[in-house]
Amino acid sequence: MGKSKKKKSHLPLRMNILFFVIFLLFASLILQLGVVQILYGEDAQEEINRTENTTIHTPVPRGKMFDRFGRVIVDNEPLYSITYTPPKGVQPMDRLKLAEDLAEFISMGEEEELKKIVRERDLKEYFYLLNEEEVRERVSQEESEDLSGGEEYQLLLDRITEEEVESIPFEKYQVIAIKKELDQASALAPHIIKNDEITIEEYASVAEHLNQLPGINVTSDWNRKYPYEGTFRNYIGTITTAEQGIPRANQDYYLSLDYSRNDRVGKSGLEEKYESILRGSKEKIRYETDKKNNIVNTEVVREGSRGDDLVLSIDIELQQQVDEIVKKRLKEEIARQPYKNRFLEDAMVVMMDPNTGEVLAVSGMYYNRDRESGEPEVVDHSYKAIQAQHLPGSTVKGATVLMALQEGVMQPGESIYDRKLYVSDTVKGSYRNLGPVNDITALQKSSNVYMFLAGYRIGGETYVPRKPIDFKSGTYNKFLYNFNQFGLGVPTGIDMPSEATGVIGEKPIPGTQLDFLIGQYNSYTTMQLAQYVSTIANDGYRIRPHLVKEIREPSNEMEQLGSVKENVNTDVLNRIDMEEKYIDRVKLGFQYAFQRQGGTAYSTFKDVDYRPAGKTGTAQNFMFPKDSNGNTTKIETENLTMVGYAPHDKPEVAFSVVVPHVGKQIGSSINKDISKDILDAYFELKKERSEKGIEDVEENLNEEENEASDNNEE
């Protein structure tokens, strides 16, 4: 028998192949590590050490406001503030823990206040944080499959029951209120947690435990302060609170301008109009953070500075006196005839420099008949001077006469006979038959008939008793165009966020068009009437009224003004399309109305020495009250108005007065009384200041510059 062959084993070969493959893998790994170390080692190390730069803008106090004589009327009052500057990547539970710790030292309010701050959603979010796993089980995977993160979160909150919300003890409301503020903070941006009514104990306690309160800091903040309290507040305006922050409607706009969500911004008046100037320049800080969001370096890129200051055209002392005059006269008139004046509620005044458009005082008082216990009898509603529109009555006759003279339908000195006119089936006339009047005496005595006949001629008609009027096409538009030139029916351009432009009737019948010419159809604001009379006083130049006179750099000195940054110059909107000789005729008529026997304002102004000129006005108006049965009654009232300026030869102050819904034919002179009182106040203050050598800010500044120039020349 032969020997059987021994079967060879393949195991060593397979093992060798396996070892070889492993060797190749290790060699490849070593090679790759070498490449990373040699070629990309520096980049890898940079990635490990990578940091991120973030720039944050810190708020500063707003600019102040001064009156024309440099008196502070809006200031900043320093106060304590507790802020939170969260690091990047902070988690909700971290904020909750911080809120619980902070609640040991501060209070966000008493019970009623906390109930207003803490909403149902805030309570649900608090419950969710403490019971996240349990609440998540209430939403199935199928339910959340197609939902966004925000939608899923809302669904989770919806699954929290009312009983669970009510189970949260009230003592936790302080924690929830604090967390609500913490949640609003942006990474690395200081957010105010509390700056109102912080006690010294709260401030000291938080300051003492800052090392236990990550991101919390104690600092100083500011609040608006008003040395003259409520005076001129309607025009100063308001700012949002830190809680309100930037308006949600314009949130993207404000955030793009480096505002934080709880920054205070102007929301009305000059605070809103001049927000970009008053807000100041935020301090700019660059934070450098590592991959773990730890701050490794800080750098102040730009020092912050408070906002620029506004020097207003307002004379705050005159403003106070005008407010008191309007308040006093309104109360007296209502007390004189309480029943017939039961619809009398408002009186409005504007005073301005007709040559520059600078508003010197603007007032409006409202008689509060429905006041509850403790509410004032008369309330400041001065905003109505630019927003409330009323029939102006005969004050607009200056525009009518100028239009008639310029159109050539009436000649200077041409006399017409003032008597009753029978227009279609109505009777129109002046308050009495005035007899012969011309362009000047028609203004002096306030002839309606002169205006009506001028309207006939402009409309291409001849007056025939009881004949229907058929004005040529475009007559009413011509009336509107001429009145618009004076600012009647168009924006005055005043530097406020909004103003009314009057109520303009459309396509009136010819008889109503005649009413337009005596101020009995379209309505205007008190500011529009002031611009209108200033245009006449200023030889036909319509000037934009403005409340801000100068913009000044902030000063480090208390209640002192910095250097002038920008002057608000006189802005001529247009020159009326009227010849100067015709304007002079109207000015003479206005002078006669105040200074000559027979003038409608002569009895009021005959003894003054400041040579006023202007026009009175009375407009028929109506109220429609309802009785106890809901039936409406039509009751006639009167708007008593007045416009003017002084002195007549060199006007330095113009004014308008509007008192709507005075009792009909009760012999009221409230419009004249207010007009005389405010002019008296203006010229008495001027005399006092002249004797004391007091001048406004701009004049003082010019004197200082001249003195410096003289010293340099010497």
What tags apply to this protein structure?
714 residues; disordered N terminus; alpha+beta; 27 helices; single chain; seven-stranded mixed sheet; elongated
3D architecture notes:
- The strands form six sheets. Strands 2, 3, 4, 5, 8, 17 and 18 form a seven-stranded mixed β-sheet that branches.
- Helix 3 crosses helix 10.
- The N terminus and C terminus are likely disordered.
- Helix content is 38%, strand content 19%.
- It is built from 27 helices and 22 strands.
- The chain has 714 residues and is an alpha+beta fold.
- Strand 9 and strand 10 form a beta hairpin.
Please outline the helices and strands.
Blueprint: H1 11-39, H2 41-48, E1 51-58, E2 65-66, E3 72-84, H3 92-102, H4 111-117, H5 120-130, H6 132-136, H7 141-144, H8 149-158, H9 162-166, H10 173-183, E4 191-194, H11 200-208, E5 216-225, H12 233-236, H13 251-256, H14 269-273, H15 275-278, E6 283-290, E7 295-302, E8 309-312, H16 316-336, E9 346-352, E10 359-367, E11 378-380, H17 384-387, H18 397-407, E12 416-418, E13 421-423, E14 426-428, E15 435-437, H19 439-445, H20 448-458, H21 475-484, H22 510-516, H23 526-537, E16 541-543, E17 548-552, E18 564-567, E19 572-575, H24 580-595, H25 602-605, E20 613-623, E21 635-646, E22 653-663, H26 670-692, H27 697-713
Parallel strand pairs: 2-8
Antiparallel strand pairs: 1-6, 2-3, 3-4, 3-5, 6-7, 8-17, 9-10, 9-22, 10-11, 12-15, 13-14, 16-19, 17-18, 20-21, 21-22
Helix pairs in contact: 3-10, 16-26, 18-20, 18-24, 19-24
